[in-house]
Amino acid sequence: MSLRLPGKVAVITGGAAGQGRAAALLFAREGATVVVADVDEKGGQAVADDIKAAGGSASFVGTDVTDEDQVAALVETTVDAHGRLDVMYNNAGLVRMAPIADLSTEDWEFTISSELTQVYYGCKYALRQMRRQETGSVINTASTSGLVGIPGHGPHAASKAGVIGLTRSIAVDYGPHGIRCNAIAPGFVPFTKQTVDLSNPQFIDMMLALQPLKRSGTPEDVAAAALFLASDESSWITGHVLTVDGGQTAM
Ligand SMILES: NC(=O)c1ccc[n+]([C@@H]2O[C@H](COP(=O)([O-])OP(=O)(O)OC[C@H]3O[C@@H](n4cnc5c(N)ncnc54)[C@H](O)[C@@H]3O)[C@@H](O)[C@H]2O)c1
């Protein structure tokens, strides 16, 4: 079977763990040169090393995506090393959640910065390069929280709805330049570094009750959707929000 991302250069933010790690491994297996970006230097380097050990092409660039200069440098480093940027997967995200009346303004601002403003940075610098190339695919990680109400998700819902709006706006502005921009809206997928307590059975029960398929998703479920949006198979799809949610938003 032929490779699905032959010769493509892909940046994946939050690539050290979870969905980003799964996508990094999958994209590399499908022929992409993968640039793993993450604040987690040890984990990110390990993913790049694993890809290289398996015969793929990868590097790690330590990046805090909430710092605009670091995101600009990430894109610049990628283009200096590989000459182009075909796929920008703005996957990283960190959330602090509570019902709004109980949320501190500090936690609101933290979540908006680390889930929305950083996606704007990632899009902005990727688009500057992709506009020069007249081609590219931007993938932004939203959430079902950005589409439907989920108890206690206030700041997460606001930031991810913002990601969806930004995605559609970019699709409209940059479609004429040959650049596509889509979002993925995952349902519940066990994560590794979020501040939500996964040992809380009430939280797990609530999330599973939302999903007709009655299992949580896996990072690989989401990576498979990202691969489709990264590849030329989706070349006439832009401005779309692809739910990967076990049917949650069909209920
Ligand atoms: N897991 C879920 O249930 C779920 C549901 C909907 C949306 N999402 C979204 O999916 C994305 C990936 O989440 P995940 O479940 O894989 O989480 P995860 O905690 O397993 O991994 C997130 C990765 O992002 C990195 N990261 C966090 N902040 C960063 C920063 N400022 N700069 C660089 N890297 C940073 C972390 O170090 C980590 O490697 C996030 O945007 C999240 O909001 C997750």
From TrEMBL:
Pfam family, one: adh_short_C2
Keywords on record: Oxidoreductase
GO molecular function, one term: oxidoreductase activity
Enzyme class: oxidoreductase
Protein origin, superkingdom: Bacteria
InterPro entries assigned to the protein according to its UniProt record, in alphabetical order: NAD(P)-bd_dom_sf, SDR_DHRS6-like, SDR_fam
Oxidoreductase as UniProt keyword: yes
EC number: 1.1.1.-
Transmembrane segments: none
Recorded family membership: Belongs to the short-chain dehydrogenases/reductases (SDR) family.
UniProt protein name: SDR family NAD(P)-dependent oxidoreductase
